[in-house]
Amino acid sequence: MTIENDVPQELFPTISIEKELQKSYLDYAMSVIVGRALPDVRDGLKPVHRRALFAMRELGVFYNRPYVKSARIVGDVIGKYHPHGDSAAYDTIVRMAQNFAMRYPLVDGQGNFGSLDGDSAAAMRYTEARMTRIDREIVADLEKETVDFVPNYDNSLSEPSVMPSKIPTLLVNGSSGIAVGMATNIPPHNLTEVIDGLIAMIDDPNITVHELMSIITGPDFPTGAQICGRAGIREAYETGRGVITMRALTHVEKSKGGKRESIIVTEIPYQQNKAHLVEKIAELVKDKRIEAISEVRDESDRHGLRIVLELKKDEIADVVINQLYTMTPMQKSFGIIFLAIVNNRPEVLNIKQILEHFILHRKVVIYRRTAFELRKAEEKAHILEGLNIAINNLDEVVKLIRGSKNPQEAKEGLISRFALSDIQAQTILDMRLQRLTGLERDKIASDYQEVLLEIEKLRGILASEILVMDIIKTEFLEIKETYGDERRTEIIDAVDEILPEDLIAPEDMVVTVTHSGYIKRNPVTLYRSQNRGGKGVTGVKNIEEDFVSDLYVASTLDTFLFFTNHGKVFWRKVYQLPLAGRTARGKAIVNLLHLAEGEKVAAILPVSSFEDEGMEKTIMMVTRQGRVKKTSLQEFNRPLKKGKRALTINEGDEIIAANILGGDDTILMVTRKGMSIHFHEGDVRTMGRTAAGVTGMRLDEDDYVVSANVVSTDNSILIITENGYGKRSPISEYRIQKRGGKGIFGIKSSERNGDVIAAKQVDDDEEIILIADSGKMIRMDLSTVRVIGRSTQGVRLINLDDAEKVVSMDSVAKDTSSDDDDEEVDGEE
């Protein structure tokens, strides 16, 4: 009789072996990926590292406690949390103790834990270990319900699913691991730089990867050495994958006689075996592939690494060093893969995303820690309330307790008489007699008030994300202060490295900005040279109510600084400006910059170099409320993509002008009511980028500054009023005063003139354009406006209807072209 005849067929369903293998292998792969090989993006630890640290914490082997045998720690790790081989757990502990493998070791080992020569660690029964000081920041607040705990492998204990780490371990110690179908290889970084990067992200969540690279300059290996080139770092930081070149650090020493030289190797690339390196060099010398070396010695000791390569007489050290880089592990590549577990899924991340995930992790930890502390504080307050009631009714409480037959009856009596909770009544019954003394009674009342203040503070934190981010930032600064150190790995430029600017040919460009805020660039060659009096070519096609207000000639590699009325500065290279047709207006500046609502560009400054050339370059900023600030140009050499603070603006104030100073310039400020002040730039000291500035001019309550010019003595000042009147006066009429005064009249703000709308430094080779609120526009040659004294009333420049007002004035180069359609811009401009 066969089985098929006795057992129903439904008990033996048909299963596709292909599907079963696929499902089982995927389950195995995900177990390896999530549970063994890859680190978590939050605490930067693999499960075995996390379990080892947690087991040491539970054992109490902290950095200030005695060492314990490594075998005891390994036993706890594999017996309680990590049911795998003891050698795997011990190898993990050994690596965490090696200062040449971990940038910031997580285990303090005593005994033989291996060496840079590849020596194995002693057996775990011989070595001892304990946690390092930095580990306390990784396990901090673990007891305050800051992270979820999960059952261990046999459900007998629980372990944290992630550590509430204050240390961005994923970056500062790096990680490497091979999973199924994927691998991670994250280099270590400098803690100080990573913390600075995190703080920069808190201050500006829109910071770009390029801007982060100015803070986190690159990997920082525990063995030091050099990184050659920045292109691989930039690619890895932007995409999550990249390759960098590591080089050994060398220098040359001369012999006592000075006839021979020796190459001294003091640092080697990360993860390279020193003994193998020395053997490789010796083999090359023996095989005569490198003939210039006469002797190879390893003089390394406990003070540091030192490999001596003695050269033969008259050999050139630089040539030999290049040969060593080519033929030995003195130069190696490191393939960066920023792969980590994010929400139980493996993801390749760029450096900004890694920092974002860590900040989010810290926010969750702070919220959970605060909620835990609030609950404990409320429980304590509840108990203290009960004690206060008991103390205030002491005689009655004592009488009630003495009259009760047993503790349960006393508790019920207290609850009924004083409306106490069960825990309050029990606390009163458990209270010792010494707490009835005067001092103890006062202490209870004092403790209660302190707890109430603590509760208020904690509730405020939970209600305010700003306070949470401030706490995170403060903790980061404390970590940096306590554990931060200098970089060990030097980053040098690669000879053959190509940067973005290297692909841009230096070329002179004509950059034009229109009155309504459009910008473009064109090659200078587009504006062909013409004889004097030529008709010229069209630079921008005539568009109603718009015209070219500023024109600059700058190289493609020069920088334009855009200062906004909100006190921010933006940074664009000339080659990043739109290249438009000769007659096109270009692109609106508001579409080039990340401006906030109501924010507009107040000044544009072209800069060819941020370096001082014999004299410090500064920028003077002037605000509507009369404040001025002078800041070194070098402060603006790398603003963020989303803008950087150039001036701290008071409420209701805004920047109206910014100018580059030459070191011996004067500034003329003119107000709405016609007052003016002329002072030397030396009256304003150089201040930091975020300073608010100093008073440049004292204003009446209803007055504000409308213009500020850096002036030269051979020009004149033209002041325009809203009723269409203007006055052009020599600069010499405006005497130089000290800053901070009320100044002198530039023009009378009268019923005839109206208020001042603008003041500008001009000469006869310019024309001005006046625009009225009705849209009326007039363009006039300044040579027709004669220069008159400052004390005069001014002359009419434009005829207005009764309700019309002049709202804007700008100057342009004089138009000497004829009236042909293609002849609007003078050829000599």
UniProtKB/TrEMBL annotation:
One of its GO terms (molecular function) is DNA negative supercoiling activity. Residues 809-829 are annotated as: Disordered. Residues 38-503 form the Topo IIA-type catalytic domain. Residues 818-829 have a biased composition (Acidic residues). SMART domains: TOP4c (SM00434). It comes from the Bacteria. One of its GO terms (cellular component) is chromosome. Keywords: ATP-binding, Cytoplasm, DNA-binding, Isomerase, Nucleotide-binding, Topoisomerase. Its EC number is 5.6.2.2. Its main location: cytoplasm. A motif (GyrA-box) lies at residues 530-536. It catalyses: ATP-dependent breakage, passage and rejoining of double-stranded DNA. GO terms for biological process: DNA topological change; DNA-templated DNA replication. Gene3D superfamilies: 3.30.1360.40, DNA gyrase/topoisomerase IV, subunit A, C-terminal, Topoisomerase II, domain 5, Topoisomerase, domain 3. PANTHER family: DNA GYRASE SUBUNIT A, CHLOROPLASTIC_MITOCHONDRIAL, DNA GYRASE/TOPOISOMERASE SUBUNIT A. Belongs to the type II topoisomerase GyrA/ParC subunit family. A type II topoisomerase that negatively supercoils closed circular double-stranded (ds) DNA in an ATP-dependent manner to modulate DNA topology and maintain chromosomes in an underwound state. Negative supercoiling favors strand separation, and DNA replication, transcription, recombination and repair, all of which involve strand separation. Also able to catalyze the interconversion of other topological isomers of dsDNA rings, including catenanes and knotted rings. Type II topoisomerases break and join 2 DNA strands simultaneously in an ATP-dependent manner. Heterotetramer, composed of two GyrA and two GyrB chains. In the heterotetramer, GyrA contains the active site tyrosine that forms a transient covalent intermediate with DNA, while GyrB binds cofactors and catalyzes ATP hydrolysis. This is DNA gyrase subunit A. It comes from Desulfopila aestuarii DSM 18488.
